[in-house]
Design a protein that fits this description.
- With 157 residues, the protein is an alpha+beta fold.
- It has two helices and six strands.
- The protein has one domain: Thiol Ester Dehydrase, Chain A (Roll).
- It has helices at residues 43-66, 134-149; strands at 8-13, 17-23, 70-82, 91-102, 105-114, 117-130.
- Strand 4 (91-102) and strand 5 (105-114) form a beta hairpin.
- The longest helix is centred in the middle third of the chain and has 24 residues, at 43-66.
- The chain is globular and about 50 Å long.
- The chain starts with 7 loop residues before the first strand and ends in an 8-residue tail after the last helix.
Length: 157
């Protein structure tokens, strides 16, 4: 199963706020078991999509402010609330806002919206960890470019 739960970033202000979309398709691996006669996207994967967006938002904000590279690791999920399920055919709109950030981590408020309705919301707290892995950094840059621009960096003109 792949765990890239964002299809496209639609608004991007590193270290401040971001929005993204996820198109929920019946072909997703998790629908095989959750649930066969009534497919529902697991809530934990909705949180994961929100965490991917807000973690990248903080990592890029850190890079912009400090020039260094960190990995944002989710450490706390605060007050998670699920208000409606996500079904195949739905488009989830994620919204993330950085509430606070310092050298050791940060906090974001995130929402998942489906058809104009609040589907889920929570606060996410991340800790920052320095790392040096050129291959991983290259792959993350490719994914970010794909999400923001719709193309891989080597395809851009």
């Amino acid at each position: 199963m792949r765990f890239l739960l964002i299809d496209r970033i639609t608004a991007w202000e590193p270290g401040v706020r971001a929005s993204a979309t996820k198109n929920v398709a019946l072909s997703e691996d998790f629908f095989d078991d959750h649930f066969p006669l009534k497919p529902i996207m697991p809530g934990v994967l909705i949180i994961e999509g929100m965490a991917q967006l807000s973690g990248l938002l903080m990592e890029e904000g850190y890079k912009k402010e400090n020039g260094g590279t960190v990995k944002a690791l989710m450490s706390i999920v605060e007050r998670a609330k699920f208000r409606r399920p996500a079904y195949p055919g739905d488009t989830i709109e994620y919204e993330a806002t950085v509430d606070s950030m310092n050298d050791s981590g940060g906090r974001a408020s995130v929402k998942a919206i489906i058809r104009g309705e609040l589907a889920a919301e929570c606060g996410l707290i991340f800790t920052f960890h320095e790392f040096s892995n050129p291959r991983l950094e290259r792959r993350r840059a490719e994914i970010l470019s794909l999400w923001i621009n719709g193309v891989m960096p080597d395809e851009a003109v």
